[in-house]
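so my prof wants the structure for this chain in the tokens format not the other one, which i didnt know existed until like an hour ago. anyway here's the sequence
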Amino acid sequence: MAKPRPGQTDALNSAGCEKVFAGTTSGKLAERPEPTRCLEYLRGGGTLVV
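here's what i got, hopefully its the right format
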């Protein structure tokens, strides 16, 4: 898992984000582990910030 750029985590936390998913993957790979984990984590009534 890649870490968000400096300052991004603080900004997301200040915006009320409780969990941050970040990752970098080659554009040619079909599997994207972090977006998959994020979608699995989401529950009804939740908000996704991109």
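also thought this was worth mentioning. The radius of gyration is 12 Å.
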